[in-house]
Amino acid sequence: MSDQSSAPVAAHEPPYYAVVFTSVRTEGDNGYGETAERMEELVKEIPGFLGMDSARTPGGLGITVGYFRDAEAIEEWRGDMEHRAAQKQGRESWYEGYTVHVARVERSYGFRRGQG
User: Fold this and answer.
1) Containing domain of residue 55, as a range?
2) Per the structure, how many domains does the chain have?
3) CA gyration radius, the chain
4) CA 51/CA 41 separation, integer angstroms
């Protein structure tokens, strides 16, 4: 994923959904970086996409959380043909393994230093 701000995605008015993608990468890039950037561009075009947070440990564990207004937005993203092709490539060469969790967010709040 591209470098994002170190600030997390702002809290949204619930309910909405969080899609948690946890992965362990294989060695090497093998085109991953370019595809990840393209996926970021594409997901932002989905109506109902609210943002995402992403982090990766030096050992290769990555967690990306995408936030969506409703289940329809998630289904649109899940069914996107370029996204499906990237998922296939991920299973073939980029990931040792991954899990996906989809959760409905019932409560959401945040804190930012310097803001009342």
Assistant:
1) 16-105
2) 1
3) 15
4) 11
The answer to whether residue 115 is domain-embedded is no
The model's pLDDT over 34-49, given as tens digits with 9 standing for 90+, comes to 999 999 999 999 999 9
Q: pTM to 2 decimals?
A: 0.89
SS3 71: helix
4 vs 95: CA distance, rounded Å: 22
DSSP string, 81-103: HHHHHHHHHIIIIIEEEEEEEEE
Residue type present at position 69: R
CATH of the domain at 30: 3.30.70.100
State the Cα–Cα distance between residues 104 and 34, nearest whole angstrom: 30
Q: Identify the segments of the chain with pLDDT beneath 70.
A: 1-5, 116
